[in-house]
Each structure stands twice: as C-alpha cells, then as structure tokens.
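Reading is simple: the token line describes the chain's fold. The lines below illustrate.

. . .
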Amino acid sequence: MPRHTDRGFVRYVIVGAGPAGLQLSYFLHQPGADYVTFERETAPGSFFRRFPRHRRLISINKVHTHSSDLEIRLRWDWNSLLNHDPELLFPRFTDEYLPAADDMVRYLGEFQRVHGLAVGYGTEVRLIERDDDGFLVHTSEQSLRCRCVIVATGWGAPFIPDIRGVEHAVGYEDMDVDPRGTPYSGC
C-alpha cells in the first residue's frame, strides 16, 4: 500500500489503474502531488486481460512514421502514455501494427513500475461518500479522506437496453471469437 494513505488523508484518490488512471497518476506524481491510485485487481490494465476478446488492439501501433521528430511520432502513436522518458513508449514493446492486448498489459505494468506511481493493487473501492471538505473513500482495507476523487474505471459491464427480444441477442462479451466460427443457426 502506498505510504500516502498512512495519514488517513490524501488530496487526490484515483480509482482504476488502466491507461487513464496511470496517465493521471503520472501527471500528479511528477510535481509531487499527494495522491493514491486504487486498483481492485493485482496488476494494471485489467480490461486488456479480457478484452478485446480477439486479443488484438484496434488502436494501431504506428512504429514506421518515417519521421525522427518526436512530436510527429507521438501524433501517430495511439497507445503510448505521455511521459518524459522517450524509451518508455508503446512501440518499444512491440512493432506489430495491430498489437496484442497482452503487450498493453505489459506496457502499463512497466509504466507504473518505472515511474514509481503510487498504486494500491488488490484494493477494491467499495463506497465513495461526499463529506464536508471532500470525500470519504471506503476500500476493502480502510477508509480514507480526500479532497478530490477521479473515477477512471473504464468500461465495466454491457448496457442492455429495455427492448423486447434483446435476450436473444449475443453480446460482444459472449461472442465466439474462434476464426472458424460456429455456423449461424438462424432464428
């Protein structure tokens, strides 16, 4: 658990250690802000451990931009988190045009490790309450007061609209991803 929580108060609490949560953690960490990031899983990027189901990112990895200008290369880089270390960019982890989701998981773990970001893994945020001067964040291990809460949990569950017959539809989370597929049985 990061040391910031020992006092029972931090200025910022970030919920979720995916790309958005780690990016914000980085920008708070750089000037020495008082923050902690909580992630209920044991590692960052849990979304990418399950999705996309076909195990390839749909955000391209443009490693061959034919430019040595870092600004131009970053404009074409759809997967890297912004940081001051030119060695810690996603194209250094794979040169595949449509990279594997596991490469993103590996990249996010390395990003957190290299920058020493204050992430409490295995810590589920169970309740967030408004309080006079901010918020009270209840986790699986403690309650913590903070001034600001940023929820960066990403996609959590499919939205199933209230439409007659929707129970017969197959959602993305349940679709067969075998390229040979299952023959369509019709209605």
